[in-house]
């Protein structure tokens, strides 16, 4: 997997498809005590069940049989199938994944896009990620957990944008510039004026749109087009925090 | 709904959210004979059932009870629930919807984006469109029908790009220009060199991505950002047919 080859192995406890979909590889190293091991075993069983049967077919019995954890423990700690799926997503978000750092915004965006393509065109790993996205259609708790997962994951990805601004690849919008003296720009404020969240989502969106909405295939060409479109939009200043806050006061986001 | 107000009413037999999701309003005028009326009644019942119970809970019995069409007829003509869902999607694609024509590419893209936001933030119409997208996770035939629906729908949307090129808003890429003498450019070839399909998908993708993958809200501000990003990418030549065909020979799309 392209992303993994660019990262020290120990920083990728899952399978590296962290902006692609939440589906850590079963058998991943599990730090922590018995509680953590139990939680990870349950998570693996949930993913296996979602992959095999989908959300409508997932049962507490299946998870008990495949995790070796007693049914009464599952009911006491996770309550029901919704609770099991939500916790599997919460756990997927607790890894130490960091976004690619290739030295250029274009390279970083390309690595992210490639990660999505690789993840979802490999049937062995695509199924559980797809199953999580599908589960969110049927369970409000799964949908909330998926939202939290992606918000946190894309917040990590904003580091790409901060680095690009520091390298001078993405000048802050003119109207934001006076507020950011160059010598005072910290990691957290370097990209003020740019909606970094929208920028990093932009490269994934066309790929997920084809995979799960229009059901069209994705490949390297589609990924490259997503990179080119995002870069062009970023250079043109289309992802401005001002635009984000301006038109719709009180908008939830 | 914004789009409907821009179109002659008779061209919108559904609810106008045709790039947003396939969910014609029950009670729509039904031209044609008894067979067409039966098919539309069955389609309405399928949408009602998907909205009420989701794909896993949809049954032929439900469709019979809500369409007034006998179960044996349903089994004979549609075979099973998958066949019913696929035909409801096929029927949604057989309307006479045409994309917005506001006089500018920016206005047209904004109308498309607004349509998605309006459709999926109105609970009364969002449910059946979401249910179709959800059904595609569980039925390969539903997924195929959804793919066909969107391919055809976005093919209609390519007219936006053709008009923009004719108005000079989007010059054809330099390397494509020699092949297109101005006086020979027809509707079908005016946008040669531009991947019109990618361009029109680009404005919808970030909205669907938030709605159905990251489960984040969409609003006018997010829509406006999608329009700005797509326009900037289009002006920068990011949606080139050359790019589409170049990098990955034999890529399925």
From TrEMBL, chains A, B:
Annotated HTH tetR-type domain residues: 36-96
Alphabetized InterPro entries for the sequence: Homeodomain-like_sf, HTH-type_TetR-like_transc_reg, HTH_TetR, Tet_transcr_reg_TetR-rel_C_sf, TetR_C
Descriptive protein name: TetR/AcrR family transcriptional regulator
One Pfam family this sequence matches: TetR_N
Organism this protein belongs to: Streptomyces nigrescens
Polar residues: compositionally biased ranges: 1-13
Keywords from the named record: DNA-binding, Transcription, Transcription regulation
DNA-binding region (UniProt annotation): 59-78
Ranges annotated as biased composition (Low complexity): 20-37
Region feature Disordered, mapped onto this chain: 1-37
């Amino acid at each position: 997997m392209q992303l993994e080859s660019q990262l020290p192995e120990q920083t990728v406890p899952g399978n590296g498809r962290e902006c692609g979909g939440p589906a850590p590889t079963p058998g991943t190293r599990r730090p922590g005590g018995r509680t953590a091991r139990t939680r990870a075993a349950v998570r693996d069983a949930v993913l296996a069940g979602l992959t095999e049967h989908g959300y409508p077919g997932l049962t507490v019995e299946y998870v008990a049989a495949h995790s070796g954890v007693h049914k009464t423990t599952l009911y006491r700690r996770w309550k029901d199938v919704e609770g099991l799926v939500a916790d599997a997503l919460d756990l997927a978000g607790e890894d130490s994944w960091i976004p690619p750092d290739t030295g250029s915004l274009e390279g970083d965006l390309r690595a992210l896009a490639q990660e999505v393509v690789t993840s979802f065109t490999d049937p062995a790993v695509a199924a559980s990620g797809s199953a999580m996205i599908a589960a969110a259609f049927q369970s409000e708790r799964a949908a909330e957990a998926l939202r939290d997962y992606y918000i946190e994951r894309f917040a990590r990805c904003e580091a790409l944008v901060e680095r690009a601004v520091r390298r001078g690849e993405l000048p802050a919008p003119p109207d934001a510039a006076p507020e950011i003296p160059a010598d005072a720009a910290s990691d957290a404020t370097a990209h003020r004026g740019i909606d970094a969240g929208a920028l990093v989502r932009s490269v994934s969106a066309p790929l997920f749109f084809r995979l799960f909405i229009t059901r069209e295939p994705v490949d390297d060409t589609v990924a490259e087009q997503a990179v080119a479109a995002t870069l062009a939009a970023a250079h043109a200043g289309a992802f401005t925090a001002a635009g984000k806050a301006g038109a719709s006061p009180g908008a939830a986001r």
